[in-house]
């Protein structure tokens, strides 16, 4: 315990070292760990003596500006010294800046801003390891143009009400303004930033760059696309043919011509020498070529041949296509994966009658297969936000105008845990086709109507399901940071 007097004010100072801690969110940038904690009481103490107390405790060198005057009344209990000092300065309208030598200057906002507007500029080359220098340069330009606070709780310079536009690389703003004097240039070949800024602000800008240049996590994406196509077909048809050897309609049951007769032109023959009758019920055997069962029944009724045809089919087709694409990408980067083929076709522009074709035929290409586009984002709690676009294209046929493509797509955004499988899309499409042909009136009779009609029923069901599993790829050897500057 130490006791000392400052005028009529009693100051109790308790100094104690604490374990090294991670910088608090409001810790000034000029504070370096390990940061000791301090417990102290000030009552109407001149601010010079207050700062001297902190300087003795931290072992740092402080320089006062001409406007640093006044008294301080504060009660500090076991707080990091830099946080406590920053709050005291902020409450009294002062701030602190640290130069490259480690000396901390305390002055008013106005004096620091005025000094920044006339102090010399310095340049530094900063290699960028993980980020892209061209993208990082835009953020640094905004910090320079807006006079960002880079000295912790107090800040180096107060931000203006309206930030000036970002400076053009290679140009400097007017020397009367502390904002926008610096410039940022990039070298794409070496992925390097070249920053020019005021000497007092340059270390803080460099510190910002190093904080932003962090290793981006990688995400392994494993997807499973299941496409199932089921088609069920049922066909049943009954047809009849009746006629005599000399009178018939040659449609369902072809008959040979009589001996010595000339070939008959057409599909029928009629004998005009006596009574005759010929007829066909369900004139076309619609399922003759596709039927799995064909039955023929023939009988003679009073000199006429009655022939019955029964065609039946029951079939099921199943097509199961499964694709399991996988890829690895870094955080916030789109990964595209395509598995399939590319069709090339020739398109000839239409020719206007009376004109010569002026445009030569052109070759176009169409991708047919499965496409997967994934953009992952790793959250702070190690969850993965996925923007996914998946599609499947299949070829239906080709015409003079080009190929006909059937396409099914799904676009979604989901939030999943590391290693969790989620179904991002499910689409079921059912198509039913029913074709009925028969004898009018008789085909609609109950029970016996099936004897006078031919019926084809086809049901097609298509299922598409997409499952995605993300895995965060951790660096086993840990993040490799560049060596510290000497």
Describe it.
By secondary structure, the chain is mostly beta strands. It has five helices and 23 strands. Strands 11, 14, 15, 16, 17, 22 and 23 form a seven-stranded antiparallel sheet that branches. A four-stranded antiparallel sheet has the order 1-2-3-5. It has a four-stranded antiparallel sheet with strand order 18-19-20-21, with no helix packed on it.
Task: Please name the defining characteristics of this protein.
mainly beta; 4-stranded antiparallel beta sheet; 5 helices; disordered N terminus; disordered C terminus
Tell me the Rg in angstroms. 44 Å
Give the biggest beta sheet: 7 strands, antiparallel
Helical coverage, percent range: 10-25%
Give the number of DSSP strands. 23
Instruction: Determine the mean pLDDT.
Output: 76
Taking the alpha carbons of the first and last residues, their distance comes to 38 Å
Low-confidence parts = 1-27, 148-178, 476-486
- Tally the helices: what do you get? 5
Structural class: mainly beta
Principal-axes geometry comes out as rod-shaped
Sketch the topology as an H/E string, one letter per element: EEEHEEHEEHEHEEHEEEEEEEEEEEEE
Beta-strand residue percentage: over 45%
List the helices and strands and how they pair.
Layout (H helix, E strand, L loop, with lengths): L1 E5 L2 E8 L20 E10 H12 L3 E3 L6 E10 H11 L2 E5 L5 E5 H10 L2 E7 L5 H13 L37 E5 L4 E7 L3 H11 L5 E26 L4 E2 L18 E2 L9 E3 L11 E9 L2 E20 L2 E5 L4 E13 L14 E17 L4 E17 L2 E16 L4 E17 L14 E21 L13
Parallel strand pairs: 4-7
Antiparallel strand pairs: 1-2, 2-3, 3-5, 6-7, 8-10, 9-10, 11-14, 11-16, 11-17, 11-23, 12-13, 15-16, 18-19, 19-20, 20-21, 22-23
Helix pairs in contact: 4-5
């Amino acid at each position: 315990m130490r006791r000392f007097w400052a005028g009529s004010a009693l100051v109790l100072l308790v100094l104690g070292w604490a374990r090294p801690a991670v910088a608090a969110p409001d810790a000034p940038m000029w504070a370096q760990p390990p940061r000791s904690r301090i417990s102290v009481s000030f009552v109407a103490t001149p601010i010079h003596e207050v700062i001297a107390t902190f300087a003795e405790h931290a072992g740092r060198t402080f320089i006062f500006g001409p406007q640093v005057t006044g008294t301080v009344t504060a009660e500090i209990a076991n707080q990091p010294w830099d946080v406590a000092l920053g709050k005291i300065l902020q409450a009294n309208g002062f701030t602190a800046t640290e130069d490259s030598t480690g000396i901390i200057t305390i002055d008013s906002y106005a004096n620091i801003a005025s000094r920044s507007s006339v102090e010399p500029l310095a340049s530094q080359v900063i290699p960028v390891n993980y980020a892209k220098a061209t993208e990082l340069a835009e953020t640094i330009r905004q910090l320079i143009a807006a006079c960002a606070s880079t000295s912790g709780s107090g800040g180096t310079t107060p931000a203006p009400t309206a930030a000036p536009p970002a400076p053009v690389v290679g140009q400097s703003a007017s020397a009367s303004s502390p904002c926008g004097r610096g410039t940022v240039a990039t070298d794409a070949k070496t992925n390097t930033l070249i920053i020019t800024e005021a000497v007092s602000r340059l270390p803080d800008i460099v510190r910002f760059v190093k904080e932003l240049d962090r290793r981006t996590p990688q995400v392994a994406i494993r997807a499973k696309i299941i496409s199932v196509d089921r088609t069920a077909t049922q066909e049943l048809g009954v047809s009849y043919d009746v006629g005599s050897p000399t009178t018939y309609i040659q449609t369902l049951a072809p008959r040979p011509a009589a001996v010595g007769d000339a070939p008959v032109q057409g599909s029928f023959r009629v004998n005009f020498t006596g009574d005759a009758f010929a007829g066909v019920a369900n004139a076309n055997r619609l399922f003759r070529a596709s039927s799995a069962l064909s039955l023929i029944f023939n009988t003679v009724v009073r000199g006429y041949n009655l022939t019955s045809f029964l065609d039946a089919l029951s079939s099921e087709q199943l097509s199961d296509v499964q694709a399991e694409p996988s890829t690895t990408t870094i955080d916030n980067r789109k990964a595209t994966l395509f598995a399939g083929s590319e069709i090339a076709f020739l398109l000839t522009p239409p020719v206007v009658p009376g004109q010569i074709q002026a445009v030569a035929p052109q070759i176009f290409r169409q991708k047919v297969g499965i496409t997967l586009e994934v953009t992952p984002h790793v959250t702070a709690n190690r969850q993965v936000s996925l923007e996914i676009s998946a599609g499947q294209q299949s070829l239906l046929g080709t015409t003079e105008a080009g190929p006909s493509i059937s396409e099914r797509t799904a676009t979604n955004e989901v939030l999943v845990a590391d290693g969790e499988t989620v179904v991002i899309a499910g689409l079921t499409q059912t198509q039913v086709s029913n074709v009925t042909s028969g004898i009018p009136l008789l085909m609609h009779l109950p029970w016996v109507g099936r004897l006078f009609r031919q019926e084809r029923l086809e049901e097609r069901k298509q299922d598409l399901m997409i499952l995605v599993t993300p895995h965060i790829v951790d660096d086993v050897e840990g993040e490799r940071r560049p060596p510290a500057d000497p």
